[in-house]
Amino acid sequence: RDITLPLPYLLDEIQRTLENQSSQAEPTGQITFSQIGQIRPLPYALVVMLNLDTGKFPNRETHIPFDLMEQLRQQLGDRSRLEDDQGAFLDAVVLAKSAVWLFYNGFDVSDGEVRDPSSIVQEFKAHLALIVADAPCAEEAVALNPYIAEQQQWLKQLDVPERLWPMYHVHPLQPFDPLGFANDTAPQRYRDHWYRVAQQVQQPEGTVQPWVNTLQPAYQELRVVDSRQWMADVTFPARLYLKHLGVDNIALAEQFEQAEPLFLDGLGRYSIRQFLYEHDHTAPLELLQDQLPVGKIMHSAWQQSSAEQARLLARLQNYAPAVSRTTQTIWRLSKQLHMNITVPLDNRSDWVSMEASSARAKRMACVWLEYLIWLAFGQQGAAAKTLRRIVVFSDKTVICEGLNAEQAKHYLDQWLAMWHYGATQPVVLPAALILKALEKEKSHHWSATEQGEMLLDEQDLKSLLNAWQDAKAYVNLDIRQDESSQGHRDWAFILDQQDSTALLKDAMNRYSYALYAPIFQYLRLE
């Protein structure tokens, strides 16, 4: 017979089904809760299945209003929900890498009578009894696992074969179970732990205890660090501290654009310039159709990006005919620390590079650190004063020059000292904040105190504190990604319930002059 069903009714039911499944199908990386058969089929260290009772699994009470397999007579080719649940159960068993835990109520809650598990679990138990090797006698089994002696009576009531006794663990069902009143060692209770958890849940407005005040142990074994990773750590110490703790402050997943762009933003223009730089104008336009705007604007955006890349190459010719070739080597800083560094391959006075990005504060700090590593590693002595580190950015050219090898080694030691300390205690001193003035070709000034300490001038410190506390509500910028702001998600995570302004002042007094004052002196922009 013909059965008509409104399409919106069908689509709503499909949408509800997909929404229920999508929230359970994605592994979380730690502990994932999901309905059996809906989680993504990936290997898991431990698989735990609950509620494997008769009548609960397989679930026979799920009814879809328009399921014709339930409404009409069974036909050849119809799906069997029982077989689907059996397949999901076997998939969960196969996906476990270390262990599988199966839980079911073996005794009735009301009268304590024995209750059988699901038919699928019964078949699985019978199969295990068939393939598992014969277990030793009961006395030997008790000697191997004394806990079996306490559960022998229950295991016999549950009709568990003796060879499967070591696999079973019977948990007391009721608080007045005789096992709880035995003279033997009392079972482990966790009520005190859960009571503290309940107190915190009932008082969500309670004060979170500061957790960054504990000094973390430093590394003792041999370490080989990559220079680029090291630069990223010291220019943004929050990343350094969290990495040492083994904490990954997971960010929200970025959402893809729902509509094709009509114009390229700054990030889009950068990606096109980077593509042109890597392929040297030899790649066809069609390879960038996923990034360029649609229609006629695509060709104009391509021409504009090509012109910007041509101007960048023309500026490069002012310093060198091509970028300098580089090589990687291992630098032994100490017995416990080796660094994988990048240095120019040729012994020339200028190390020239080109970047498609703009000259931001953090990038200029990385250029300065590359310059220090190059001079300190080469050990050229006084001749190092003639060496220049040049990076041609999209908007400016950064040039570092004027240091000798001894000065570079001294300044680099200051950065290494901060790096060692920053792994054990958070150092609130992001390069994106203190070098923001350098982006505008301005400078900071330090003055000596009566005790001989070099401190940042009051006016400069005030401007940095204002920038640190600025919520930037007037710009279209996600403050959680701004490393120069206390609202950055890593700073907010580390400095929760802390006085971030006081910590910033302390870091300024300790490290700002030793680390950043030489940058304003020996780095210039063109």
Walkthrough of the structure:
By secondary structure, the chain is α/β, with parallel strands linked by helices. It has three domains: 7-181, Double Stranded RNA Binding Domain (2-Layer Sandwich), CATH 3.30.160; 223-249 and 320-525, no CATH class; 266-316, no CATH class. The protein has 18 helices and eleven strands. The chain has a four-stranded mixed β-sheet, sandwiched between helices. Strands 3-5-4 form a three-stranded mixed β-sheet. A hairpin with a 4-residue loop joins strand 4 and strand 5.
Summarize the structure.
The protein has 526 residues and is α/β, with parallel strands linked by helices. It contains 18 helices and eleven strands. It folds into three domains: 7-181, Double Stranded RNA Binding Domain (2-Layer Sandwich), CATH 3.30.160; 223-249 and 320-525, no CATH class; 266-316, no CATH class.
Sequence-ordered SSE layout with sheet pairings:
Blueprint: H1 7-25, E1 44-49, H2 68-71, H3 81-95, E2 96-102, H4 119-131, H5 138-144, H6 147-157, H7 191-202, E3 223-226, H8 227-235, H9 237-245, H10 266-279, H11 297-316, E4 326-332, E5 337-344, E6 350-354, H12 361-378, E7 388-392, E8 397-401, H13 405-422, H14 431-434, H15 436-439, E9 446-448, E10 454-456, H16 458-469, H17 489-494, H18 500-522, E11 523-525
Parallel strand pairs: 1-2, 3-5, 6-7
Antiparallel strand pairs: 4-5, 7-8, 8-11, 9-10
Helix pairs in contact: 8-9, 8-12, 10-11, 12-13, 13-18, 16-18
